[in-house]
Amino acid sequence: MPQLKCKDLSLGYDGIEIIGGLSFEIEKGDYLCIIGENGSGKTTLMKTILGLKQQLSGTVEFGDGLKRSAVGYLPQQTDAQKDFPASVWEIVLSGCLNKMGARPFYSKKEKQLALENIERMRLTKLKKRCYRELSGGQQQRVLLARALCATKDILLLDEPVAGLDPKVTAEMYALIDELNKKDKTTIIMISHDIRAALKYADKILHIGDTVFFGTKEEYLSDSSLGFGKEGAV
Amino acid sequence: MTELLDKIALYLSYPFVQYALIVGVLISLCSSLLGVTLVLKRFSFIGDGLSHVAFGAIAIATVLKLTNDMPLVLAITIICAVLLLRTGQNTKIKGDASIAMISVGALAVGYLLMNIFGSSGNLSGDVCSTLFGSTSILTLSQLEVWLCIILSVVVAAVFIIFYNRIFAVTFDESFAEATGVRSKLYNLLIAVVIAVIIVLAMNLVGSLLISALVIFPALSAMRVFKSFKSVTVCSAVLSVACSLTGIMLSVACETPVGATIVAVDIVIFFVFMIIGKLSSKSVR
Predict the structure, then answer these.
(1) What is the ipTM of this complex?
(2) What is the largest CA-CA distance in chain A?
(3) Contact between residue A49 and residue A59 where contact means Cβ atoms under 8 Å apart
(4) What are phi and psi of A199, to 5 degrees?
(5) Which of A58, A218, B49, B92 could disulfide-pair with A214, CB 3.0 to 4.6 Å?
(6) In this structure, CATH architecture of domain B2-277
(7) A1-71+152-233 CATH
(8) Which residues of B lie inside 8 Å of A (Cβ-Cβ)?
């Protein structure tokens, strides 16, 4: 049973289809990159997988004991967050909410989990700092730590390196790669950066005028997409 | 100076002043709690919009000659709050425009209704007291005070119980929703609570100045403090302190209650802005 199975998905707004006929499966431990032009529906697809948006038709199924609320999500940053007064600790802890049931307050267990993930993302020194005063890379690591509190199994990342400088971008990719290789966390990432997508991912979903889903090798040899031998990469 | 203190001591012995203080403290506490969330969610103006809706509702109640207008005003305001916060995200008319529309619309219709059907001889006096609160906080009945106490306790309890979830929904609605927090439900909760607070606060500062009560303490606290918890606690303390000072000053100097409280809030905002500037400089 695959961890995530999308069948004949059709996505759009107000009944107008942006993209249709999407079918793909994700196994545990996969590293999938979703690429495509602006406005091709990458973020919409991710939001549909997360249940934030309703698909026009088709199905999204979670398998392998995975619940929809037990996913980690790293959204694009919103304007409101840029001047939000919150400490790193408060934000990371809020990732544990899906383990609380109806309990109103965090227990020791959740606090321990938050602490572990803060350590893992090398944020221990910044724990008490204010989120808005951190650099872009540090902010992304905070959000990643929060996502890890919500799950061990699957992370959905929406352009995690947008706006970061090259050095921090490389660090971020290495960190995500480590989660995938070491902890067998499934990664689904939206990216503009095809070069990095091909370096790290093992499966590619290309959406746009042509829809492609398959392994990286298949993608590179698919001449209809204009990559591959020509070296468009 | 001692003369002024004597005067304040004398006033404090009157039950109506005591009522005003109790209600003032409770309302300012409640409004500041949600103020932080509203400011951060970019809903600063919802207080203003809703208070004008409440004004319109009071006009309707007056026309219908209802003796107790509270239930009707509360119901109408809650409905509008839910509509406004719901349409905040993805609609044809964006949040700020719809708030402006409802707010100005309700104000105009309310005044029109009062003008056409109003029976009172002193129309502009009535309107002015609804808009600016004037003395109504000093004429509270015991029943109103109890109602206010109960509602405030409920609001504060709801806020504390759902504090962690309110934080999550305020900071990042999509993440919260993706991990199973029912953010629509909490937005609804926030809308209902803010409507209750506004109807309560109309007695204190009147409908024009409610926004000040909601946003000033939060904005002041955000100048200085850096975590959500410290901002929330600080804005609650500030709000209560400013309202107490404002009520005492207005009693002692015979100035309008609502405007005096807001004036104190403004002064504190500038004080905190300077403290914030100074402390961020010393860090660098």
Answers:
(1) 0.85
(2) 57
(3) no
(4) -75, -45
(5) A218
(6) Orthogonal Bundle (1.10)
(7) 3.40.50.300
(8) 40-42, 160-165, 167-168, 171-172, 174-181, 222, 225-231
